[in-house]
Amino acid sequence: MEFRSLNRADLNDNFGILTKAMSGDMVFSLSQTTAAPAASVLAAGDVVYKIKVRLETAAGELHSWFNGKISVAIADDDATGAATVTPTGETAMTNGELEVTVTLPKAVWTAGKKATLTIGDVSTAGTGILGWAVADKTFVATVANS
After folding, report:
1. Which of 11, 100, 10, 26 is nearest to 62 (CA)?
2. Measured between alpha carbons, how far is residue 67 from residues 1, 62, 92 in Å?
């Protein structure tokens, strides 16, 4: 798609990024995708991860125009600990960015068990973002042997 150039480079850049979004060029990126906290560290106290979430083009350009909601969820497979994430559920991004906090609370976690943060689009009636489904992105914390 081509558009007329304006005398303001910032507006031209915004139109260029929005054009990419309208053609489906959107991915979630996370500042960290894996972690391996030791079981002994988890037994001693909470382990907290601050994860920055961005909506970008495949080339890494920020979709700064996006101020919509995304889905934030966490699940774990250990009966002794219960991972949490804040915020959770349908959460609004601001200028294509959001920071979430994943907490693995003090507990006797089992080595090899995992807590998985999943970031996704809010697919209301299958529309995703601008009518495009954006693939989920995950952060996985796998408990390591002490």
Report:
1. 26
2. 23, 12, 6
Q: CA-to-CA distance for 14 and 19, rounded, in angstroms? A: 8
Both tokens of 112, joined, read: 């090899």
pLDDT tens track, the chain, 146 positions: 555 555 666 655 667 788 899 999 999 999 999 999 999 999 999 999 999 999 999 999 999 999 999 999 999 999 998 999 999 999 999 999 999 999 999 999 999 999 999 999 987 645 689 989 999 999 999 999 98
Dihedral sign for Cα atoms in the order 87, 70, 51, 111:
positive
* pTM as predicted: 0.89
Residues in contact with 114: Cβ distance below 8 Å, sequence separation at least 6, in sequence order? 76, 77, 78, 140, 141, 142, 143
